[in-house]
Hints:
Elements: E1 2-5, H1 12-15, E2 17-20, E3 30-40, H2 42-49, E4 65-73, E5 85-88, E6 103-107, E7 111-113, H3 120-123, H4 126-138, E8 147-150, H5 156-167, E9 171-176, H6 179-188, E10 192-195, H7 201-208, E11 214-219, H8 222-225, H9 229-232, E12 233-241, H10 253-258, E13 262-265, H11 273-288, E14 296-301, H12 305-314, E15 320-324
Parallel strand pairs: 8-9, 8-11, 9-10, 11-12, 12-13, 14-15
Antiparallel strand pairs: 1-2, 3-4, 3-6, 3-15, 4-5, 5-7
Amino acid sequence: MRAAYYEANGAARDVLVVGDMDRPEPAAGEVRVRLATSGVNPSDVKSRAGSNRKMAYPRVVPHSDGAGTIEAVGAGVDPGRIGERVWIWNGQWRRPFGTAAEFIALPAIQAAHLPDGTSFEAGACLGIPALTARHAVSIDGPVAGQSILVSGGAGAVSHYAIQFAKAGGATVLTTVSGPEKAAHATAAGADHVINYRQEDVGARVQELTGGRGVDRVIELDITANARLLPGVLAPRGTVVVYGIGGAEAALPAPFCLFTSATVKFFLVYELTAAEREAAVAGVNGMLAAGRLVHAIGRTLPLERIAEAHELVEQGAVIGNVVLTL
């Protein structure tokens, strides 16, 4: 099979190779998926560069997200699943071989049903962005009637978070850095868009919430944005953190203490079985209802994987970067 891989950390064009590998065989409890697409996420890029973890295996086929069709099953797996369209989560998490290949074999539970009305390109955006968004919005209970600030509203996770929060009955505020990103966030359903380069985020949030602040913040980089919390978070509000941009975050401790703020961190790769089941069900429920809009920024063939990684590194694309196989 054709696959992209690397055998050392480094720059995309220096270490990524596209070549032939043996097709994997499904072990007991596993399925083999013929992949149609592979999603490229920031964590995949950081892993290849070695900035978030070093080489754990001699050879790594990157990417955790993808979509395709089950073509074989291992012992103990219902053969009726052969031919099923699926999307993949945690494809390369704690495993050497991810979705940047024509085939992947992995535990059957990690191949979630992909509704017929959802494209394989969209399916490659679900494992990290959509699951992160769904869990971030739901981690503290129902959001109906609440106000939520989604940080970085044009990002892949934020684009989905806006939609899940709106579907749950929340009023959604979001921050962006320019007009094009503002339009993207508005199209996702954001009620209010704040350009943080031109506006005082705290003052604008206070104005939009009648001086109360928001009930929840969905935060992509607490290391950069913790300083904003006193201006945006309501008393007893919750900050949900799914990403960091540095080794330490300086939380405004007096504010957090005297307002009884809650800060919750989570890593989408390490959800509990119950959390994962709820998040997958939430994503597929929205897909089945046709209520989830996807942002495919660029689609490239597998042979251009180095270019795809560079686009993600540079933040040069609004929306997800997807490889076709």
